[in-house]
Amino acid sequence: MFSTALRNLWAHKLRLMATALSIMLGVAFMAGTLVLTATMRKTFDNLFADVYRGTDAVVRAKAAFEGPQGTGTQRGRVDAVLVSKLQSVNGVRAAEGAVFGYARLIGKDGKALGNPATGAPTIGSNWSENSALNQFHLVSGSPPSADNEVVIDRKSARDGHLAVGDTATVLVQGGPQHVRISGIARFGNADSPGGATIVAFRTPAAQRLVGELGKYDEINFVAAPGVSQTELAKRLSAAVPPATEAVTGKAITAETQNALRKALSFFNTFLLIFAVVAVLVGGFMMFNTFSITVAQRTRENGLLRALGASRRQILASVLVEALAVGIIASIIGIFAGLAIAIGLKNLLAAVGVDIPSQGLVLTSTTVVICLVVGIGITVLSALSPARKAAKVSPIAAMQLGVVGSTGYGSKQRIFVGLGVLALGIAALFIGLFAGVDQPILFVGAGALLVFFGVSILGRTVSLPLSRVIGTPLPRMKGITGELARENAMRNPKRTAASASALMIGVGLVVFITIFVASTKASINDAIDKGFTGDIVLDSGGGLMGGVDPGLAQRIAALPEVAAASGLRQGLAQVDGKAVIVQAGDPNSIFDIMKIDAQHGSTADLGAADIGVYKNVANDKHWTIGSAVPVNFAKTSPQTFHVAVIYGENAQAGNYFIGTKAYNANFPSNFDNKVFVKTRAGVSQATALAAIKQSAQAYPGVKVLDRGQYKADQTKFFNQLLELVYALLGLAIIIALMGIANTLALSIAERHREVGLLRAVGMTRPQLRSTIRWEAVIIALQGTLLGLVIGVFFGWALVSALHDQGVTLFRVPVLSIVVVVLLAALAGALAAVPPSRRAAKLDVLHAVVTE
Description:
Helix content: 40-55%
Shape: globular
């Protein structure tokens, strides 16, 4: 039986290899993601191990709190006087303070480098004069020798077309600084640490411009000969103040490596989700292929049973075919994944995350995972058809035709499908609304179960759906339309399996489209409600940067402007949870930004007061005067009091403090945005021109009217939508390949029928039309099911994100219509090859062949 299985596989090698392509594409995407992940891990692990090789110990402030996803541990700074104090500790050979902060370099063309809001950070630091502690090494030029000189990373020099001796502008605290580039450096073996822009000043200038005077972010140490890192850290721990800690260089290396992995983990998970989707879609295609081929070999299997083959042998022969297909597809997919990894690496570079060049890392873990997934999905997809093949009785050898799967399916199947669907919806709602520790796991499992539930019920709904979708065809296309509808209805199990693969891709496309449309509508609505001004200056500095508050004062002084005020932001721990806190001058910001104060007064926002959004206040049972525990990285934990409870959080967020509280508790003084209200009687164009002229001294700042501000705030979601469409395109292509493969196999199954139709007068164009319209019915069925699921997923997610600002549910009708039309067109195109093959059948040969 083993040799029989291999002969069957070889006899139908082209058909099965076309089927294996679906698994190969899914495995390739998974392999590419895993290869990229392993490459990044090894590259950055080696990189940081090299740059911290000379650091034996680090003294720093103890962790204040863990920031939200991607922001890392929040710490204060240490006093600079500790350097001289700790240099005398036995075992210290050298000590040097390090400064880090926000700095944004401007290229020669006047454009700001980097994108700290969505990409790699833009960092200012001090240039280390100790070669053992310096993470950079010069490739040209010399270290900074004056406060107006800097060393920059080689990537920034290349991107900004800057060279040694050039004058450049840097956005830092206190306004733009004009500096001379004294040197260009590399970070270990990389042109830049992860794509970040680095500007290194002399230490006094770095403390003044990107840090704090008399402070360091950390102090790095080199041990004396014979003193281990552990021993040095122990001795330093005994000498540091209570709020400070000493850790080994190895610990800092591991911490930095883990932090970067964590920062990139979302991207890896994001890609793996699409890889899993592609593999699952390929699994549906494999199931359909083996279902059809087993049905076609009913007489052959019956004959084998009559000759003495056992059911177990028949089962094993089908699974051997599946195993062979899975092995071949997975191996090819692994090697194809190397090319995909290169493409994903370039994608990361496009969004500002630069991975240093080195060979791709293909680990044994990646190979094992891909083989297990590829082979496992293939064998599991063939298991049900194999069991069906094993049940063929010897009498089937005498049958003349193949019995199709008709009807609505058993009651047991319907109950199982409804049960799986109900379980999936329950898991989805728990993940979205119950506040569990691992919501992503519940949401992912719920979505998967919903898809499986609908797929199990596919046979039940396929027959009526095919009938309804195909109703217009007899009137539109006559006999060809009638035959197309009947063919789709003849085997609802096959039709449903083909449609299910497309259902997954379309469902996810519709879901993402609705989520993006709802998010954009909510952002626009929030701007309309919360922003009463006319113009916004966006610093582009992200969470940790911005522009000097002097810009807002400069804009406010313009005769064309009635009011201008800066909006700041920072990380704090409020009532035990790390959050983003917004801040502004209570005397001016609320003339331009609406918060709808419901209780209390904004005038009461003093140095120890906080404003709270009404939903948060209700959840925590806070009222005016309630004590709120707040922890800032710079200062010790303290108690604030609720001064105002507001009903509009579009711009103010869930927590708002005044500038007195902000300046007392945050080390950096930046405006993230500046809101402007023009003077009455001044045209928008006149005001924009004046403000742009005034803002020219701050390169990188975008001056936007209301419409441009809305477009800028939603630009990221448009880019996300484009990326998702591109990634899901793979799954949809696999699904369309499945439709084409199903039709090709069903034509082979209906060999005699096609011949008889041609014999009684059906023309080749009519036959091609029948097959194309059958494909359209299948494609539209999958599209409609995907549409229903996508709308449901979109509604559920938008409902769950209501408190996070996604308040409006929007179904983009035009986009949905385009998806449906494209699916129908793609279905027709997928049917072109099998329809041409059917039209070329020799009539006499088809009639006499069984």
